[in-house]
Here is the input.
Amino acid sequence: MSSPKVYVLAGPPGSGKGTQAKLLAPELKVPHISLGDLLREAVRSGTEVGKLAKSYLDAGKLVPDSVAIKVAEEAVTKKECRNGFVIDGFPRTLEQAKLFDALLIKLKFDLSKVLYIDIPLKEILKRLTGRRSCRNCGAVYNLTSKPPKVENVCDVCGGELYQRKDDTEDVIKVRFGVYEKQTSPLVDYYKKQGKLVYIDGTQKVDQVFKEVCKAVS
Ligand code: AP5
Here is the structure.
C-alpha cells in the first residue's frame, strides 16, 4: 500500500495559501492544517503556547522553531490525518523543513508536492489590508476580490467579521521581510528534492485552484 500523501502550500504572506488549502483539502478528502490558525487559536484560548506566541504574531515575526514544530507535530499526529493532509504556513524555516522531513519519515507519510504560490509585495499589501475573517467560523473574505454580501457579516454563519491584528501595512512589511529572509530559502530546498511546483498567485482564485489541482493530479 502506498504511503498517505502530504501537500504543503507555501508562499509569501497573503499569497492565497489558506484560500487554496481550504479548497484543496475537501477535494482530496483530507484535513487542512493551518499553523497560523492553530497559533491564533492558542492565543485566543490563552494556552501556554498561546501566551508565548502572542507577541511574535502581533509583531509579524516567526514564533521559535521549537514552538512551531511542537504545534505542527501535535496536529499531524492526530487520527484525522492518518490518510494524509494539506498543510499551510509550515514549514517556514530550513530547521522546520528538516525536522518536518524527519517526522514524515517516522510517520511513514509521503511529502508529495510543495505548491509554491507567489505574488509581489504590492499585491500582498492590497490583499492583506482588505482581508476580513469571521470570528465564528474562520471564513475569509476580501473587501476587493471577495466582499461579504452584508458589510461585516459572514455569508456562511452570520458571524462578525474582523481584521487580523497583523494585517496593518507596517506589520505586513515586517512579515514580508521575515518571509524573504527566513522562508524563501525553502524554495531551493524543495526544488533540490524535486517537489516544488511554482504557481502564479496573481491570477483569480479559481484559476490558481485549477493549477493547484493539476499539480496534485
Ligand atoms: P499565517 O496565518 O500563516 O500568515 P501568513 O503566512 O502571513 O499568511 P496569511 O494567512 O496572511 O495569507 P495566506 O497566504 O493564507 O492568504 P489568504 O488565503 O488568507 O501566520 C501568521 C503568523 O503566525 C506568522 O506571522 C507567525 O508569527 C506565526 N506562524 C505561522 N506559522 C509559523 C511557523 N511555521 N513558524 C513560526 N511562526 C509561524 O488570502 C489573503 C487575502 O487575499 C484574503 O482576503 C483572500 O480572500 C484574498 N485572496 C486569496 N487568493 C486571492 C486571489 N487569487 N485573488 C485575489 N484575492 C485573493
Q: What stands out?
A: The longest strand covers residues 110-118. The mean pLDDT is 96.
